Task: structure prediction
Amino acid sequence: MPEPTVVHPAGKTHVIPRDIIYPFILVTSLFALWGFANDITNPMVAAFKQIMLISHFQSSLVQFAFYGGYCVMAIPAAIFIKRFTYKSGILVGLGLYSAGALLFIPSSMIMAFWAFLISYFILTCGLSFLETSSNPYILAMGPEENATRRLNFAQAFNPMGSLTGMFVAQQLILARLDDTTEAQRQVLAETAPEQFKALQVHDLNVLRGPYVAIGLVVLVFFFIFLISKLPRSKGEEDNRLNLGPTLSRLWRNKKYIEGVIAQTFYVGVQIMCWTFIIQYAMNELGMSKETAQGYNIIAMVIFCSSRFICTYLLKYFSPGRLLMSLAVGGFALLLGTIFIKGMVGLYCLIAVSACMSLMFPTIYGIALKGLGDDAKIGAAGLIMAIGGGSVMPPLQAAIMDMSAFNLGLFTLSSTRVSFVLPLICFVVIAVFGFRTSRIHGHSY
Result:
């Protein structure tokens, strides 16, 4: 029996039409699942640095592999979804997500950093399918005039998964790693390699557990989606690719292209700020990884709360103007992170999360609005933009590996100077918000 098509009755302006509440809840649950994967992984940059005795740059390759999967798989995912259905894309995504997480078992057994990077890459190829499917599907589940509000509402559940991932990383991984310091591990690696290997075995087994657990949970979701009926969106019955004309139309759409650029820099700033809160707290304030992760969790609570607040504010302010204002706020707070020492600098970094909360779904909604069925391929460009999270953290980590910067009147640590990169990202986002409200306003 064919699945029903989403129909939006004339005159109805419900953000979530009543007849698709169950499918909406089911698809919205995916936002929490990939939020968990994103934010259990950010603290692993610091964990792998300690376990493998590698540099900041080398450990940040976790993010390169993780977000690289998004970038590489976005276009293939979009073509697959266009050829088949959103549901098919979700099933492939869940399958790859589960496979990547379960590959942590052999990765931990061979104790090779490259094996974990491959596991992360496969896992996030799945996340790329999920995001390429779920975001435009949510936009299509109701009237176009409130599509951005609907996506913001669905995205509000992403931080809940993120919070769970952060808590698991703190309590079930970082808190259970052997407390032998990196300096002591370095000595053991040189003088007692068998003892050092035993430490690595213990820590990698600790790290493996939560990933295997989420892999099994995702497998359960795979079977739930497999047996559930999801409505087709309008136009989904047309499975012709027409890639040439579609890409040509997208390339000529300035609002869309600028949205892809803005999204690249947004994901970059988000991953840099959340990944390196731990390093900032450790390097600048001498905190332990577990304590530093607690401040990361506070940042996510702020992010989650701000998402609901900003979604409400969209009823009264244009998305472009609110986006620009939040980018300016994030810029100002990062100036505090760079130039103010001690806890105040850390508080400024934590507060940046309040400014980031609105950005991903709003940029996404602005860029895809009015694209019609081109949104399936257009969504791929915005998911490819997540690749900003693979390139920018290693660049920031490379700065952290440098010596302190002498600026004449004062000296700044390399950790604080590294936050110049997210500062630049906010400038790009502010420009996009301004152009959306002033130049593209007639089309949004």
Notes: The chain has 22 helices and two strands.
